[in-house]
Design a protein that fits this description.
Shape: rod-shaped
Number of strands: 5
Order of helices and strands: HHHEEHHHEEE
Number of domains: 2
CATH class of the largest domain: Alpha Beta
Mean pLDDT: 80
Low-confidence stretches: 20-27, 192-197
Radius of gyration: 32 Å
Oligomer: single chain
Length: about 200
Amino acid sequence: MSEPGLHDLRSRAASRLTGAAGAQGSATGPADALSVLHALASSPDTAHDALALLHELQVHQVELDLQAQELQDSRVELETALRRQIELYDGQPAACFTIDRQLTVRELNRAGASLLGVERDAACGLSLEALFTASGIDRLQTMVAMMTVGEPVPAATLQGRPVDGRPRALHVQLGADPSGDGCLVVLTPMDAPAARP
């Protein structure tokens, strides 16, 4: 059947379904579609068209089923990949943070919460300033400003003031947050406690 013929057949079927729905006062559903298809198939003049339409509908249904399965498979793959990324992020031995330009914590991993000395849920909204001495805070703010304007930011070792009160050196690396205007920060405590200032 030619494309204009299929279009005409679709139009006739749609008008019959609309007429059937209007006559019954209810929404058109699968039963209405089947009754129109049955009516078309019952007439020798339109039986061939009905079979062609039925075949086309079956092909479309199979296509939809395949697309639904592909979407489901993609969803499972994405959820698995997301879980893996979360596990990798949380399992990092270094403290990982996402901060804004004011050094406020937006996201962090378990090591980051441990370094801050708070529960992970309570850490968002806190400032990284709590982890550094005054000179360390100044240097970190300078690093964030450099990164914000696109300058390369070398790693640095800053004077830390962890929760246990023992000053120690923290190795700091910064990167741009690809999903926003913040910074990604990795803090690695150095093995030996730093000398007291």
